[in-house]
Write a sequence for this structure.
């Protein structure tokens, strides 16, 4: 069928901010869809609240709305743009739920907007647990034994969760324990879990009903220990259907598939099982009615009986779709978008081979391994146990010719210091019972524990009984451990056959060096002397049946045929630039850095350079095969990068490598690459080191007559206490060379300092800690700039809404500044230019300042891309990452049209935090970053922009009700009084703790006093649990006060009560509510500004 001509304008809804369960894979799918539809001549209207995405760049769509993704806001955009169709399948659960809401409200029918890609009936049948079960019954496909519970409605129309829990308890005798609770219409298993006892069961039923937008849960029989599989299926209107990829979870059922280690293709299915699962998956799509796009069907198989049950299906592009696309080279999102406009699979070409149609089912002759990346260390008090609710913040993918090679490459890619199957310290390892107990716990390091258990002498049977892993995987890990024994006992191989065997099994030079007790450099030299070098293979979608025209590659080691191993790299004779990506997403290093890497590719390719991307993250746009001219899907280690550079230097001219755009990951390689004779483009590694080295940086500031807080560097615990006396409490302490405020804390006394040194970090000559005076009540400011070494352009000045002490990545901020005096802004610009020229910055830089009593202090300088770059680019409408990349390649700033950061409109960035995934964790913000993503609010004044940012971040501010206010003494100020008066004006009643209530009374402000938690009952927590509090404004100071108010913040989280933990944000929220009450919130595309 040819494409449809009856529709001209298509709306795509994005996924919003990066959150656990819905990450940057939807930037990849959304960007693919935008490109696919526009190249077919359709006008694309994009709605997404996330500024840190490629898809919200102004040239990706005809009209881009960086606005909150709510039915009300999207309705306004539909009224303005009048699209003919809405594609709801590219923005994860957010887009799907919003599209359904628009359909239910009659908005789509009213404005004659057609759902394409998936219709309302199909979405509901897949997402509604009851309808899905009925559909599977019609196919004679078995579902797990289950019950569907929907919370009844109260008289006021709200959901009665307690009654829903009682209904769930009634069905428990039929289901039995353990039971699995799955909320409907949610992502990443939010709110669900595995219940082993009655208490767990009632807890997960409550959180599940609350998490589901339709207040519905599915209570499943336990499938714990079963094998789990996913089928990525694409189907068109002509009923052509293909399995793009079969993915097998190494972790058994009970761990969310997003948290599980997975492999492709499925490795332990028999051919009969595979064909049954394949046919059934296609039958599921037919029955549900998905006929224009990609879907994901999840299966479980009982390893004891072979019983196969269907778990669920996603009628949209999913997290696994991105993985399947990168694993096979088949662009699921692009093809799905084209199927949605009427094409059939046989009418579309395969971009990789350029001669086969898209209906040609992909086949792969290599093994792909995905390993999730976790961030439990960011959430003290959280349990690192994996359940059916997803907790990982990112993932890596590795490709190898064998499972051994692929798995070890994936471990090396994680950026956690692993070099492969590194040893794990086990307390009392002489006790088998201790090891078995550890193995039975579903933790992120379980794979390493299995390897360690093999080293400690446990049998395969013991390990399988404890983990429920398939025996095939345990046997392969044992083979790796057996080979490592030969290196431990015999040292480094002296012949090429044995060295090649190690490399074919995925052993990195770094891992071999540990086993042989040598340096990595010694191993590298020996390997090269023996003639053992990596060769590169291309991803071709067809297991080498046809030649791949697209240079998408991975490294491997193989036995030479006819005297030479075949390498498919075929480097060109062009002038080339290598861009090192950021590796796995994690807190502190997220999609913002991938955004910068993509812009470097686009800009430099546009200038005629051949761009070469090296990265290992399957979720991102940077690892799309058409982002760069050549793509290497490889770990970001010195060894792997040098192997690529060795091959690329064989032909053409290597201009240099960009390390400053991918965050800390590539920066760690800068010095080693520089010493190996590789040209580093832009700011030199020495200048980067100077900014990180406290002593050298202090000298530079002194020479420039710039101020910084009183500080010191401690190389021992004793030295830390001496410096603390000089710096004075409170102080900020952190390890040197970190990103995202890792292990950064505010310390208020000697006891806290002692605890930090004992528990948080190991302080030594090699690992010093930095101690800085904590500037209480200071305003923090971020400045992004570009320098070519002679001129400096101020790209953006952002004033933080939270005071200094809250990590910049977690603080809301405003561009341009909303309260700074013009003279202060002028001085900030002057100091930025001084620092850029003093450091000889060539490219991007970010400076963090603190302003206290009109004095400016320099907190830190980062002569590299920072996480604020995409936000600044969208706020000032300037491609600053692209400009910086070209500057790094040698162009002067005078070649560019540079835009002022002093815009007429105001943009507010708000952080999105994942506390709902980590029950028991304190939601108080501090110097260690914990946000996973961000949203942007844009309007003509600060208050409305702030309100939009809150809305985009999922904070539902009340228009009236009871507001609880309790503040520390420092915040009892004119600003607090103005905030309280405004709230009363708006119709709120103020509830306050005794001290705050007395302060209000002294200033003629009416409030009702309530007990703190430790002052007796009833107290503020009781009021919150009784649904008597609609908004919380609580600031604390001192260890005891923070501890005392922890239970109150926990209730805010569980009961979804909007909360603010700084006075600045509380004040902004009050003014935002006022602006909201005053009138309608307007929307504008970024192209219209």
């Amino acid at each position: 069928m040819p494409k449809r001509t009856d529709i001209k304008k298509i709306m795509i809804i994005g996924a919003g901010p990066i959150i656990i369960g819905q990450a940057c894979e939807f930037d990849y799918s959304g960007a693919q869809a935008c490109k696919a539809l526009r190249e077919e001549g359709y006008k694309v209207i994009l709605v997404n609240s996330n500024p840190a995405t490629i898809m919200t760049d102004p040239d990706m769509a005809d009209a881009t709305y960086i606005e909150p993704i709510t039915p009300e806001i999207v309705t306004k955009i539909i009224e303005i743009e009048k699209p003919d169709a809405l594609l709801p399948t590219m923005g994860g659960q957010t887009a799907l739920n919003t599209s359904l809401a628009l359909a239910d409200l009659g908005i789509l029918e009213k404005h004659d907007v057609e759902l394409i890609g998936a219709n309302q009936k199909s979405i509901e049948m897949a997402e509604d647990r009851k309808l899905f079960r009925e559909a599977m019954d019609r196919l004679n496909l078995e579902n797990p034994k289950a019950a569907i519970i929907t919370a009844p409605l109260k008289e006021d129309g709200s959901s009665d969760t307690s009654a829903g829990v009682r209904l769930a308890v009634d069905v428990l005798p039929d289901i039995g324990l353990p039971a699995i609770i799955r909320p409907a219409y949610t992502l990443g298993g939010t709110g669900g879990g595995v219940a082993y006892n009655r208490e767990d069961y009632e807890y997960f039923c409550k959180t599940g009903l609350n998490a589901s937008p339709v207040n519905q849960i599915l209570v499943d029989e336990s499938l714990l220990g079963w094998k789990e599989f996913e089928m990525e299926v694409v189907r068109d209107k002509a009923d052509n259907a293909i399995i793009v990829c079969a993915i097998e979870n190494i972790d058994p059922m009970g761990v969310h598939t997003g948290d599980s280690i997975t492999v492709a293709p499925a490795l332990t299915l028999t051919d009969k099982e595979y064909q049954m699962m394949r046919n059934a998956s296609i039958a599921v799509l037919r029955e549900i009615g998905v006929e224009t796009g990609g879907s994901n069907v999840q299966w479980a198989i009982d390893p004891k009986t072979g019983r196969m049950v269907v778990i669920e299906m996603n009628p949209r592009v999913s997290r696994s779709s991105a993985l399947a696309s990168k694993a096979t080279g088949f662009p699921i999102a692009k093809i799905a978008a084209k199927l949605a406009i009427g094409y059939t699979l046989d009418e579309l070409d395969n971009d990789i081979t350029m001669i086969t149609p898209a209906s040609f089912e992909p086949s792969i002759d290599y093994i792909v391994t995905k390993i999730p990346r976790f961030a439990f260390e960011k959430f003290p008090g959280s349990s690192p146990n994996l359940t059916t609710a997803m907790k990982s913040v990112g993932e890596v993918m590795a490709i190898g010719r064998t499972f051994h090679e692929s798995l070890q490459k994936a471990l090396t890619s994680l950026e956690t210091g692993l070099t492969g199957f590194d040893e794990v310290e086990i307390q009392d390892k002489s006790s088998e019972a201790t090891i078995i107990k550890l193995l039975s716990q579903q933790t992120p390091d379980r794979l390493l524990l299995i390897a360690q258990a093999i080293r400690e002498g446990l049998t395969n049977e013991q390990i399988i009984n404890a983990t429920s892993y398939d025996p095939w995987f345990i046997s392969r890990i044992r083979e790796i451990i057996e080979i490592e024994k030969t290196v431990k006992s015999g040292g480094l191989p002296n012949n090429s056959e044995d060295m090649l065997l190690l490399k074919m099994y995925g052993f990195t030079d770094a891992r071999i060096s540990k086993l042989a007790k040598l340096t990595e450099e010694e191993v590298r030299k020996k390997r090269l002397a023996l003639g053992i070098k990596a060769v590169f293979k291309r991803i071709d979608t067809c297991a080498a049946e046809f030649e791949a025209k697209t240079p998408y590659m991975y490294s491997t080691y193989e036995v030479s045929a006819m005297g030479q191993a075949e390498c498919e790299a075929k480097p060109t004779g062009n002038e080339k630039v290598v861009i090192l990506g950021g590796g796995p997403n994690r807190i502190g290093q997220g999609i913002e850095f991938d955004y910068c890497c993509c812009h470097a590719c686009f800009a430099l390719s546009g200038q005629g350079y051949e761009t070469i991307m090296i990265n290992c993250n399957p979720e991102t746009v940077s690892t799309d095969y058409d982002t760069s001219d050549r793509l290497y899907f490889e770990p970001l280690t010195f060894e792997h990068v040098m192997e690529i550079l060795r091959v690329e230097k064989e032909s053409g001219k290597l201009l240099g490598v960009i390390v400053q755009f991918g965050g800390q990951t590539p920066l760690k390689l800068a010095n080693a690459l520089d010493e190996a004779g590789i040209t580093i483009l832009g700011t030199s590694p020495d200048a980067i080191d100077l900014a990180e080295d406290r002593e050298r940086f202090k000298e530079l500031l002194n020479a420039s007559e710039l101020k910084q807080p009183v500080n010191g560097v401690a190389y021992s615990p004793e030295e830390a206490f001496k410096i603390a006396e000089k710096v004075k409490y409170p102080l900020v302490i952190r390890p040197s060379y970190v990103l995202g405020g890792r292990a950064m804390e505010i310390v208020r006394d000697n006891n806290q300092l002692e605890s930090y040194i004992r528990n948080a970090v190991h302080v030594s000559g090699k690992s010093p800690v930095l101690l800085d005076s904590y500037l209480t009540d200071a305003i923090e400011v971020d400045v992004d700039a570009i320098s070519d070494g002679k001129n400096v352009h101020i790209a953006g000045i952002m004033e933080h809404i939270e005071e200094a002490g809250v990590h910049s990545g977690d603080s809301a901020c405003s561009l341009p500044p909303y309260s700074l005096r013009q003279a202060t802004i002028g001085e900030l610009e002057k100091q930025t230019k001084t620092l850029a020229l003093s450091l000889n910055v060539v490219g991007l830089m970010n400076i963090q300042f603190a302003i206290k009593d009109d004095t400016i202090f320099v907190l830190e300088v980062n002569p590299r891309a920072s996480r604020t770059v995409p936000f600044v680019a969208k706020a000032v409408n300037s491609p600053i990452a692209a400009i910086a990349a070209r500057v790094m390649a040698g162009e002067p700033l005078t070649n560019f049209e540079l835009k002022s950061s002093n815009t007429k409109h105001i943009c507010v960035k708000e952080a999105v935090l994942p506390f709902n995934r980590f029950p028991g964790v304190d939601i108080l913000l501090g110097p260690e970053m914990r946000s996973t993503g961000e949203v942007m609010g844009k309007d003509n004044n600060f208050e409305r922009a702030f309100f939009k940012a809150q809305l985009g971040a999922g904070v539902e501010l009340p228009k009236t009700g009871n507001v609880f206010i309790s503040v520390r003494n420092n915040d009892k100020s004119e600003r607090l009084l103005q905030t309280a008066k405004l709230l009363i004006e708006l119709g709120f009643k103020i509830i306050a703790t005794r001290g705050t209530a007395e302060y209000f009374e002294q200033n003629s402000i009416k409030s009702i006093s309530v007990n703190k938690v430790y002052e007796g009952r009833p107290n503020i927590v009781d009021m919150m649990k009784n649904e008597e509090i609609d908004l919380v404004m609580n600031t604390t100071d001192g260890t005891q006060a923070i501890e005392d108010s922890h239970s109150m913040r926990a209730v805010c989280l569980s009961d979804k009560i909007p909360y603010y933990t700084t006075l600045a944000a509380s004040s902004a929220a009050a003014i935002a509510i006022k602006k909201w009450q005053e009138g309608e919130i307007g929307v504008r595309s970024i192209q219209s500004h």
